[in-house]
């Protein structure tokens, strides 16, 4: 499958959105690791391939809250891309708490909106459908590249 296959193409005017309040600790020569939490299989695979094409190390993708929590707690991560609504109606917010505690920057990828999403800075929300260019800008800003 070709990277970008499941993205929409949005013009240059679209803004990349991330929350990059923390700067990952560099690991000598190792690619930066990005956690991908997305329960839509085709989009998850496409995001993973795009992350890999950027020269980064995708962690996941995972589509359940349990798997996301396990990776967020145990893996060395430099950033995270998080779908808000997961399987069985679960929300990703417990993962956000772990990332926040570990000072790992994250960005929501969502078409969903609720009070908690609306309270987030615009920089922390990447709206679906995703464009490949917006994802690239979001990851660059997330990692402060």
In short:
The chain contains 5 helices and 5 strands. With 145 residues, the protein is α/β, with parallel strands linked by helices.
Structural class: alpha/beta
What's the end-to-end separation, in Å? Answer: 27 Å
CATH topology: the name is: Rossmann fold
What order do the helices and strands follow?
EHEHEHEHEH
Give the overall silhouette. globular
How many DSSP E strands? Answer: 5
Please indicate the percent range of residues in DSSP E strands (runs of 2 or more).
Answer: 15-25%
Describe the sheet with the most strands. 5 strands, parallel
Low-confidence stretches: 1-25
Q: Using only CA atoms, what is the Rg?
A: 14 Å
Report the helical percentage. Answer: 25-40%
Supply the CATH class.
Answer: Alpha Beta
Q: Looking at this structure, what is the CATH superfamily? A: Response regulator
Number of helices: 5
The figure for the number of domains is 1
CATH architecture: 3-Layer(aba) Sandwich
**What integer is the average pLDDT?**
82
Strand neighbour order, sheet with most strands: 2-1-3-4-5
């Amino acid at each position: 499958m070709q990277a970008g296959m499941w993205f929409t193409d949005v013009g240059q005017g679209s803004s990349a959105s991330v929350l990059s309040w923390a700067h990952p600790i560099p690991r000598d020569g190792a690619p930066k690791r990005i956690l991908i939490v997305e329960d839509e299989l085709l989009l998850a695979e496409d995001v993973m391939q795009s992350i890999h094409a950027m020269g980064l190390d995708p962690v996941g993708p995972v589509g359940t809250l349990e798997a996301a929590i396990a990776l967020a707690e145990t893996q060395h991560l430099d950033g995270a891309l998080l779908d808000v609504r997961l399987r069985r109606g679960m929300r990703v917010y417990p993962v956000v708490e772990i990332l926040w505690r570990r000072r790992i920057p994250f960005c929501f990828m969502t078409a969903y909106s609720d009070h908690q999403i609306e309270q987030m800075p615009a920089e922390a929300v990447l709206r679906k459908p995703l464009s490949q260019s917006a994802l690239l800008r979001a990851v660059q800003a997330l990692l402060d590249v």
